[in-house]
Write a structure and sequence with these properties.
Blueprint lengths: L1 H24 L5 H20 L2 H6 L4 H7 L2 H14 L9 H15 L4 H26 L7 H31 L12 H18 L23 H15 L10 H8 L3 H11 L5 H17 L9 H7 L5 H12 L3 H13 L5
Helix pairs in contact: 1-2, 1-9, 2-4, 2-5, 5-6, 5-7, 5-8, 6-7, 7-8, 8-9, 13-15
Length: 353
Amino acid sequence: MLTTMAPLLRGIAIGAFLVIALGVWRSTLSRDAKLTTVLTFLSSAAWALTGSEQSATLLDHPRLLLWMTFPAAGLFWAFVACVFQDRPLRGLAYAPAALLLLLGIAATWAPPGPDRVLLAVFNLAAAGLCLHAMVLIVRSWRGDLVDSRRSSRGLILGIAALFAATQGAAGALHGLGGGGPWASVAVGEAFGAVAISALALAMGGLLLEARTPLFATPAPQTKSADARLVAADRVLLTKLEAFMDGGGWRTEGLSIPALAQELGTQEHRLRRLINSRLQHRNFADFVNGYRVAAAKAQLADPAHAEATIASLAFDLGFGSLSPFNRAFRAATGATPTAWRRAALAAQIAPDGD
């Protein structure tokens, strides 16, 4: 019974993935969110279509469709980084997808023997990317200021990452072992068809639901909204601003729980206030706004011209250089080194230049 319904279930998954891609493409999302989402679900549709030997045979093993499936895990990783960490996606964000594409193509062209090794490496790399996507989802969970997006992490996209990682690991072990029970959970088999159709429908329900602010930015508030703030929120906002303006943002590893304890309030109230009142979707973005402003002031100061970028990052509360560089570039469009060079050069330029 289940084997008979497998083609229908895969068809449902393909249709759902294509509807998601079309709906997002016609939306008003940002360029990054739109591009990474559309590419992810087009690749997923191709994966569901070519994963079955029966479908591949009927389509006469179309090489282009097969190649479209290769970057799926890398695109999903970029999707998670864009949607859940609010990262602007630059060229390097698509490097994992490009690497998977090259590995997949190499495996299809390699002679018997090496092709199985390349395929196993490809599947393990895909599984590793999906597992890392799960780490990204979990790591930024508590700092997420959008309530519905917080709940969707574990409910849908965590499951999606686990499913894709399982598929990658199963494919690698099956390819190296030449058979065994791993084959039954592949997308082309009955249990895999059930899983991918359920996953596609769940993702469609999440991404196409009009009220889901997975991508949305809170509506800006005007000064007239102050009168509608309850007294407790006005007090909390004053305490928050006083703490941050007093240098609280310098605290290394500052988190929502730690800040809520410092201000004597509940985490959910603090999240709602920063999200709806101060227009931030994640806590790191809120804190980094203060840190980047201070960094720009120091980088433009000739008295700090000899200070290293790393020492500056640690002084501002960053745990390492990489997140500082990423936050600074996201805010300014330039690296700290390039920004300092331009700022100092502007100060010594002759008058009238």
